[in-house]
Amino acid sequence: MAQAPGRTARIICGKEKVTFLCGGCTQEFCFNHLADHKQELSKQFDEVEVNHDFFRQILTEQTSKPQQHPLIQQIDTWEYDSINKIQQKAEKARQLVLTHIIDSIRQIENKLNQLTDKIRQSRAENDFFETDLHGWNDDLIQLKKKLTKPSNINARHDTTQLVTTLSIDVTSYKPVRRWKPEDTNGIIVAGGSGEGDRLDQLSGRFHIFVYNDQSIYVSDEHNHRVMKWMKDAKEGIVVAGGNGPGNSLTQLWASIGVAVDQLDTIYIADSNNHRIIRWPQEVKQGSIVVDENGKEEQANQLSSPLDLTFDQQGNLYVVDNGNYRVQRFNIDIS
């Protein structure tokens, strides 16, 4: 730990004494305080060992009981809450229907009693026509229909979600490769240095757009940016976003789909902001093309857009993922 001594003012006592340089923190200590420093390092080492052993215990528990993993517990909580919401809604609907069914049964019983009196009287007096028989049968049929499906009670399904959908995304990092028809192994053209936020790394899901000069635009989801990789480059450059997640015009949030028009302007499916961003080359911020109106279902609104592309006429097509549709927009690219 300590290197050859010298004579200088101390970091702790401030006195000029023979000192020893600590090779770890590069600070100098006199002989007395050198021992204190070693003791402090020993305490810190003990803390590392305690944290290590504690984490080892957690890992062992997770290995033997993976069903207790926090993600599994999150699913269990969602299941419990969802079932509870459905049961509460069902019980409320059940009580409402029971109240009206009891009232409906009373009304049907009164009408049936009246019909019973007519039938018995006609049988006793042997006084009835064929039309009476048909009429009584029709009355019975109508009473049966009202009993099984009262006309004043209707069960319908609302389009509003009672229970939120739980989706599990599992992403594994893979670099972008270029393949020729005769190739057995592709050439890495973007990423390839593990998952991360360096300029030679990518993270999360990503879509690509290959430009005419073979440069590649990559939507780097978890880094909230779009990267451009020139042909044969070892690292990319940030051409949109890269300022952390957010909804300002200098930020993206889970950018996924990406496309580039003939003017080299970048279009981005800014998924968690529910919008499409247009980002010209070499500018510091983008502009909103579609949806400043929030996550909705109207024709001018989007919900978690996933991908986008242009046709030959310059129309923009957007995968409106949360609304389960594809929308087409006329974009003025001039």
Write up this protein.
This protein has helices at 31-64, 70-125, 130-148, and strands at residues 6-9, 16-21, 28-30, 176-178, 187-190, 208-210, 216-220, 225-229, 237-241, 255-260, 266-270, 275-279, 287-290, 307-310, 315-320, 325-330. By secondary structure, the protein is an alpha+beta fold. It folds into 3 domains: 6-64, no CATH class; 76-148, no CATH class; 176-330, Neuraminidase, CATH 2.120.10. It has 3 helices and 16 strands. Helix content is 33%, strand content 22%. Strand 7 (216-220) and strand 8 (225-229) form a beta hairpin. Helix 2 packs antiparallel against helix 3. The strands form 5 sheets. The chain has a 4-stranded antiparallel beta sheet, with no helix packed on it.
